[in-house]
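Reading is simple: each integer encodes one residue's backbone shape. An example follows:

___
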Amino acid sequence: MSEEQRPINRRPIKEEKTYQEALIDLFRYHPSDMEIKYDKIAYSNDQYTQVTARDLYIDFLELPGYKEDGTQTIHAVRIYMSRDTAKTMAEGVLRLLEESSHQNAL
């Protein structure tokens, strides 16, 4: 396909790119092109965490729940993540809690 026939919104493809480089380019974006869409927003007043050899999940629970057809129903959101992501999250949450406690004490 000649350059004249190439669609305007496509940039030329480098033939020497590896699969990994092409994949990185596919998911590269400018921060102004990003939008976060929340699938669910919930308040959690309890959680249950389960760790496996490779990852973990956290169930965020909305307690006490309610009776539905004779059964106590508790809504929950389950989030899976890698152990590295969980460690980063835990460190960040602890740091933010310490900083906010210090600011509230002043």
Q: What stands out?
A: The longest helix spans residues 83-105. The two ends are 67 Å apart (CA to CA). The chain has two helices and three strands.
